[in-house]
Amino acid sequence: MSKRKAEDTEVDKMATAEKVPQNDYTIGLVDPVKDYQKLIETRVQVDEIVDDDVTKENFDRTAAAARDVIWRLLFDEAATSQSNVEKASQLLEEYRGDACFYDPTPYNEWIVKLRDEVLKRELLDFWRETLVKKQLGPCWSRDCDLFDSDDTPPLEFYAHAGCTAPFAASLKVRAALEEEQGDPAVPTTPGELSADDSAALSGEFEAVLTKENPLEEYRTLMKRFVLTKIIVPDNVHQESIKKMASAAREIIWKLLFDGTPSPEDQDKAAELLREYKGDAGFYGPQDYNEWIVQLRDEVLKKELFDFWREKMVKLELGPSCARDSDYYDNEDPLPLDFYDKAGCKAPFEANSSN
């Protein structure tokens, strides 16, 4: 096959998936995300029918180039700057997303080395705001179909420098840990109950969240009144879950629509929305799935396009589906239409056709 110049037509730009020399997989420091995406488009996501082994090898070469550039952006003292740290963060997000689909093993091995080097050099802002907050640790069953549901969540990866995994408080993980530890239920004799357990048993508690710290308040209330070790009647338990969900929806709405939301308010809303979606996917997603459409419509009506693109679409905060809830199976349709607004597409749309 003859070589083609970069300025050729779009059809000519379609590179074949033939194996190419390693030095043709180049990612620069100026715009690494753009370079990486071009390699993915021209070496991996090609229109031609090619052998899976070739696709995997081409991705692995692209991934190796990404790892090298991320390392240089973060750790080459001559190149380190806030701009380069942001570039590394953006490229790492892109790479992890693709690794979950194509080949997570090299990523999972390398990200531990990256974490160790980040902590060794005391890049604590990058650790907290990028690796932990954006959950860029090892791929696992929650975000990669190549692992089964019995896969162990990578809790230990995040348990450094005073941090914990953002999903450590999720109901599914907590339930799994309690089952593994064989922790017996606390007796429900009234005289032996704490005030919180009595409130959990009756369902009589105030579920109030504020704009100041809604995520932590939500987690605290869930731990006190829902994630209890006492035996609570099913109907009371379900009502408590609904009460917490209602409180989450109310404060998210206020954060976004009581006046013009600040970037901080949008971050708070997105963090709580992500937590609420995870819990809804475990206990029952129907109410969430109905409400999130209303939230999307209001977000677009108010022209909060950054929140739409960077939070709701990028973080996949649309309706629960088989990707994130055991209430659905792989035969249930994915909510592609939900994301097909304001020039966006579902992040998983390309993978859903495979």
TrEMBL record:
The Ku C-terminal domain, residue ranges: 31-145
Superkingdom per UniProt: Eukaryota
Protein name: Ku C-terminal domain-containing protein
Originating species: Drosophila gunungcola
